[in-house]
Amino acid sequence: MLLLRLLTTSLCAAAIVIAVVGPIRVTVVSPVQPTPSTACCGFERLPPVTVVDVAAAIAPSDFGGLIQLHAGERITAVNDRPLAEGRPLLDLVAELAPRAGGYLDLTVMSEVAERRVLMLLH
After folding, report:
1. CA-CA distance, 76 to 93, in Å (whole number)?
2. Hey, how many other C-beta atoms are within 10 angstroms of the C-beta on 34?
3. Residue 16 domain-assigned?
4. Which domain holds residue 105?
5. Of the residues 11, 28, 32, 69, which has the maximum number of CB atoms within 10 A of its CB?
6. pLDDT tens-digit map of 49-89
7. Does the residue 30 lie in any domain?
8. CATH number of the domain where residue 86 is located
9. How far is 68 from 112, CA to CA, in rounded Å?
10. Structural domain tally of the chain?
11. 112, 70, 118, 114: which is closest to 98 by C-alpha?
12. CA–CA separation, 103 vs 88, rounded Å?
């Protein structure tokens, strides 16, 4: 009987508190999407590392189509080995002959920044 009286009193007190306080509004604010920041000269900043997964069926001669270079960018080194003047990139890639489970680390430079492209071979 004492337990029933305690429960009834607690429910009445809770009802009075809810009536006095009023409704509570919960507002969910979605985060603001940042606009792409630009570096000097109006160029868009790119991530410092881009990872490209390469399927086993793709031949090394087709790697060039997987690398997305932006305007003004050029590949300057493969696996930290600088490209020699006049030597095509595909020759160096064929010389390194990456196998399944290996990778190619490309250094890409533009007028304002340097970034890396990591090609993971499966």
Report:
1. 13
2. 6
3. no
4. 45-121
5. 69
6. 888 888 888 877 777 788 888 888 888 888 888 887 777 77
7. no
8. 2.30.42
9. 17
10. 1
11. 118
12. 19
Report if residue 106 sits inside a domain.
Answer: yes
- Integer distance in angstroms from the first to the last C-alpha of the chain? 73
Residue 107 placed within a domain = yes
pLDDT of residue 64: 75
Contact in structure between 42 and 53 (CB atoms under 8 Å): no
pLDDT at 66: 83
Residue 44's pLDDT band (cuts 50, 70, 90): low
User: What is the biggest distance separating any 2 CA atoms in the chain, rounded to whole angstroms?
Assistant: 96
Tokens 């696996």 label which residue? 79
Give the neighbor-by-neighbor strand order of the sheet with 74-78.
Answer: 49-54, 114-121, 103-109, 74-78, 81-82
With contact defined as beta carbons under 8 Å apart, do 109 and 43 qualify? no
Tokens 């492209």 — which residue? Answer: 117
